[in-house]
């Protein structure tokens, strides 16, 4: 049972780190156009000027 005293804080830190990483990706607009990317990869046309 004393192992739980170590595992619970470690799991909370890892969960908090994952939440912080998710919030960072949302705030840096990495999920702006997921549908456009999925359609673009299936297209046979080459995009000479992709989005910056």
Structural features, described:
The chain is mainly α. The protein is built from two helices and no strands. 63% of the residues lie in helices and 0% in strands. The model has no long low-confidence stretch (mean pLDDT 85). The chain has a domain at 4-39. The protein has helices at residues 4-27, 34-42. The protein is elongated, with a radius of gyration of 20 Å.
The number of distinct helices, counting runs of at least 4 residues, comes to 2
Summarize the amount of helix as a percent range. Answer: 55-70%
Determine Rg (CA atoms, Å): 20 Å
**Roughly what fraction of the amino acids lie in strands?**
under 5%
| Terminal Cα span | 53 Å
What coarse outline follows from CA principal-axis ratios?
elongated
Low-confidence stretches: none
The count of β-strands is 0
Compute the average pLDDT.
85
Order of helices and strands: HH
Structural classification: mainly alpha
Q: What can be said about the biggest beta sheet?
A: none
What structural keywords apply?
52 residues, mainly alpha, 2 helices
């Amino acid at each position: 049972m004393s192992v739980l005293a170590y595992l619970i804080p470690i799991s909370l830190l890892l969960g908090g780190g994952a939440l912080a990483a998710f919030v960072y990706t949302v705030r840096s607009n990495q999920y702006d156009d997921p549908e456009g990317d999925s359609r673009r990869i299936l297209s046979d046309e080459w995009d000479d000027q992709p989005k910056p």
